[in-house]
Design goal:
125 residues; 3 strands; homodimer; elongated
Chain lengths: 125, 125
């Protein structure tokens, strides 16, 4: 389906990424390229242990996220981070998300401008 | 939860609005303030009859969308359009969506700038 035929279909909004909690996790991870611990991720996204575990599992199975062994000072630490393909897919998703914001903003501005013209016209009549 | 405590929680991403098909429908409707027929909406969003009906029902129950009687030339026509409160809630949702796009874009730019500095440093050494 082309954008012309169905301009509001937004097929690039990958459902694995679009779900709210997973969108939170992925935005946290793209902002922390070295990775985040489970505890940090939980706090940044305001998720419960159970919810974060469940969504991380979906993201791991989709190969968007990987769990790696890192170090915090002398202490070994388990970190969640984006895979390379996860980063690529997230950026593709963002392109469509930006389109949604742009389409909606254009609609709002067009309407505001029309209302403004309407007010000017009635003030002049 | 404040944005400072959980900066990636994005609590403003109302689940009724955020679901992909409903986001399509709402963006179509905000772009067509006079309303859209079921057939036009279906085509603009590339949805099946069943899917569109199901999602419109959710949006109507949440009082985001209303079904009104309009006219297409001489012919009576049923139109879907945003309610006033639906428009308001959709605009609030958009504020958070813009924040997601901005956070992700900042992360991507920061990383690109760091990579660029890295390449310059290795070219100079």
């Amino acid at each position: 389906m082309t954008r012309k035929a169905a301009p509001f279909a937004y097929e690039g909004l990958d459902r694995v990424i679009h779900e709210r909690a997973r969108l939170s996790v992925l935005t946290s991870l793209v902002s922390h390229p070295k990775g985040l611990s489970f505890v940090d991720l939980k706090e940044l996204c305001a998720l419960t242990d159970g919810n974060l575990s469940r969504h991380l599992k979906v993201l791991e199975e989709a190969r968007l996220v990987e769990i790696v062994k890192g170090r915090e000072g002398n202490r070994p630490q388990t970190l969640c981070r984006l895979t390379n393909s996860g980063r690529k897919r997230f950026l593709e998703y963002l392109t469509t998300l930006e389109q949604v914001v742009r389409d909606a903003a254009t609609a709002v501005e067009t309407r505001n401008a029309a209302e403004h013209r309407g007010k000017l016209a009635s003030a002049q009549s």
